Amino acid sequence: MSRQQEIQKLSSTLNAPKRMxxxxxxxxxxxxxxxxxLAPEAIPDLIDALAGPGxxxxxxxxxxVGAGAIPALLQALHGPGAATAAVVxxxxxxxxxxxxxxxxxxxxxxxxxxxLESIGPPALKPLIEAVENGDPESRMWAALTLERMGAxxxxxxxxxxxxxxxxxxxxxxxxxxAIQKIKAK
Length: 185
Hints:
Layout: H1 3-15, H2 25-37, H3 43-48, H4 55-65, H5 70-76, H6 82-92, H7 97-102, H8 109-119, H9 124-133, H10 136-149, H11 157-163, H12 169-184
Helix pairs in contact: 1-2, 2-4, 4-6, 5-6, 6-8, 8-10, 9-10, 9-11, 10-12, 11-12
């Protein structure tokens, strides 16, 4: 059996409808594990499974792949498996912070905020940099993320105070809200 045929067979097991009782949870878990070993060729199959019956197993497989799956997971933030992709990115952690900040310019911005918030302190310096030097959309989303981080983001207050004078009203508003929330905790 060729490597591609093996990937297709494992993907079929992972994505089999739940009504197929002979495809047990352990078979799905094993398929996801085996697909993670076949990365990078199998990453697209694991990504596709994020929106299907084997999503939890696919997520675990992508977590096992680690940083090599980040580009595909960022793309998945734009599709039907976006919520699960966000959970996987959270588990991968700080290695994807810069990529998530770049996602502020795309459709996955709201998920990027949630993941960066959950990553916490390792995301602070890049978020502060985005508030200070990013494009207007990135500055706004970075301020919103810092707001959600609350007291953890106290060191961002000087950058947020400066952003209150931003020429873009949405950035000014986000900075103001973030400062209020950070100081309230």
